[in-house]
Each structure stands twice: as C-alpha cells, then as structure tokens.
Amino acid sequence: MPSVGRVVQLTFGGVAFLTFVGAFVYLAACDEEKVTASSDSLAQLCEDHSRTRIPDAPPYQGPGPHPILVFGPGVPTLDDQKSPAAVWSPKPVDAQLVGCVDAGSAADVIGTCHFDLPEPKDLDLRATTARLTVYEVRSRRKIADLTVHGTRCPVSVIQPVDQEWVDAVPLAAEVREAVRKYVEG
C-alpha cells in the first residue's frame, strides 16, 4: 500500500501535469494568426473578423500622422495632393491603421451611371450609407466606427441581367474626411 506522502505527491504531480496540458491546449486554440504586413494581409484584417493581427506593425499612439490604408468595395485610393502620400497611401509595412468599408444600405435614386457592359447600358444610381470601421493594424483594436455616404458611380459593375440599378460608392474625399482626425490627430 502506498504511503500518504506518495499519494499526495502523485496527486499534485497529476494536477500539475493536467494544468500544463490544459494551458497548452487553451493557448494553442486561442493563439492569434500572426502575419507580416502586405496589402493582402491588411485587407484580411477587414475580412477576417476573428484572429488576424500584425504584431510587428508600428503602434497607433501619440500625435499623428498615423498612416492608413482603406479597403472595401469600390473604395478609391486616398491620395491627397495636400498631404503626404506616406500618410494616405503608405507602404503596407508603415500602416498604423486600416479602414474597412462594409457595403451599406441603399436608398433613393440620385442619378444615372453609364456602363459599357456587353452592350452600353444606363443604370439608376442609388445613394448608400456604408459603415467604415478603423482598426489599429498591430493589435486589431477598434479605433472608430464611422459612417460614409456613397455618391458616385462605381468604376465597374457585375450584376444580374434584369437589375436596373447600381449602388453608389464613397468618394476618396468623403473617406478621408471621415478618418482625418484619427490619421492626422
């Protein structure tokens, strides 16, 4: 028959082993995907709402500028001739912020867009309101939830044959104005 000391020793050893295994399994399951900064990986921050982050990215802290890249359907480049391109169109490795534009809800018809599909066609342009979420690239911490309004025709369109309308997309100036205080502040 084992001694009481031996039973206590085996019990503590078993508990310690199970604790170690449990912690390892938990950390492995919760480990975030770590990737390097590229246009694809930054766009993935917008698409993968679970675990992607880029820990080697520069932090969003202190006074601006805070370089940003914005992704989403129909989103134009944010180049601004009044501001340095390094802020509004940085290299992916320099981005501190990523803006994610989600397709919004459509409203009234505000104009007409002309497309040269298989044959020339005019489509009604519907105003849209889209959500723009700004994240820190390094941690994927949410910085802001904003709204932008689409007012222009998209560059191209893929649509069902019987669809007679297209949703507007935001102008670069509208997106820049929405995020300006986070980028320049």
Any descriptors?
single chain, 185 residues, alpha/beta, five-stranded mixed β-sheet, 4 helices, 5 strands, 29% helix, 29% strand, elongated
Could you explain how this protein is built, in words?
Helix content is 29%, strand content 29%. β3 and β4 form a beta hairpin. The protein is an alpha/beta fold and 185 residues long. It contains four helices and five strands; from the N terminus they run ααβαββββα. Strands 1, 2, 3, 4 and 5 form a five-stranded mixed sheet that branches. About 16% of the residues have low confidence.
Q: pLDDT under 50 segments (min length 5)?
A: 4-33
Approximately how much beta-strand content do the residues carry?
25-35%
Global outline: elongated
Series of H and E elements: HHEHEEEEH
Helix content: 25-40%
Provide a count of the helices.
Answer: 4
Helical/strand content category: alpha/beta
The main sheet comes to: 5 strands, mixed
**Mean pLDDT score, rounded?**
76
Distance between the termini: 73 Å
User: Could you tell me the radius of gyration in angstroms?
Assistant: 25 Å
